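Lab notebook page, bench 4
Experiment: in silico fold of construct C2
Operator: M.H.
Input chain length: 436 residues
Purpose: comparison with the prior construct
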Amino acid sequence: MRASTEILDLIGILDDGWDGLTASVRERLAASAVVIGAARTLALVAPHLPRDALLRDMDGALARVPDWVRESWADGLRVAVLATGDPLCHGIAGFLTSKLGADHVTVHPALSTLQLAFARLRKPWQAFVIASCHSVDAGEWHAGAPPAHALYKLVRAVAEHPRVAAFTSPDNGPDRVARALIAAGYGDELRLSVAARLCLPDEAVWADLPLAEAAAMRFPDPNVVVIEREVRSSPVFGFDDADYVQRQPEKGLITKLEARAVSLAKLALRAESIVWDIGAGSGSVGLEASRIARRGHVWAIEKNAADAANARANAQRLSATNYTLVEGRAPAGLEIWPDPDAVFIGGSGGELAELIALCLARLTTGGRLVMNFVTLENLATATATLAAHGAQWEVTMLSAARSQPILDMHRLAAQNPVWIVCARRAPQPEALSDHD
């Protein structure tokens, strides 16, 4: 039978300190021989604890907390851990239960600081999505920032949801969040509210700030932000060719809508897909892929500086914050990209056979490689290379025509035929068992 001391009391606390705790939680704290918490939260309760209580500061030492708890249990000591607000809402409860076992942890939540912020703002919060940038300092957000950036999840949450509430940190404060959203292409359609130093005498609230105003301010810590965006309906994909900034006069450096739609269908994207767009041109395929793979990421590469600039401009116009464009010649640099679930090759720069081999080797299980060709020579190279690697492939020839006015009538004007090649890598042979 487990000793009664092998229960961790995980206690939520706000900045009103001891006075904000319930009587039962105070009793548990007073009975704890070891109390672990950030220096700020320990200071809130230290005057009310027994003199012989051991206080352990976990600032910068979160990974050591489970061992501290186990060591205390081994000595037969009761342990409490302090956390801000509700430890189950972007707090440390998940980490501690994963390390110690859920049946060893009793959670005593306080009100979340987000709940208090909404109360101060007098806004119902059931429709809001909760995010966090309470993490390491990754610097200011920039166009094409990868998923590892500290603000990535928050910026993507704003892209997917018109109402987002977020925990911040001193490094990633409301002003930096506002600048990130401006850099992501948002403007007057978005408002940001801030609630700072909740439950303290100098508590302050700023409601419905324009992004530019919030970006230029400094807010006292700690704080949380509430982000609201006016919903402007737009297509997931299927934008007109003219919606994209592209090289003029037209030189075929944008995948036309009809070919784009079929190619995207052949890619069989999921919401979480990792996509490569090689030879991005104006970015049309990769950018529409980023809207379908909204919880994934698109990595694009383009060797022509003017086209890369156009693709970046299009990404800004579409607020494509899960899209990273590299200016360069593939396959250089692809080795550091994550393995793709889908690859689109719109331009190969004379490296088609090498690119096909690389993509087939890197595709995840069930992934697809889709290529567009307008010349017989490139089609022949592609199919020969796919056959040499044992890939499964098929070719669709797309021939489309659009209506054009002629006098007071209309005629059909043919577009260049496009061969759309869809391939999957060869299935891996099953390992032989001892009985084969």
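Observations: The longest helix spans residues 305-317. The mean pLDDT is 93.
Next step: discuss at group meeting.
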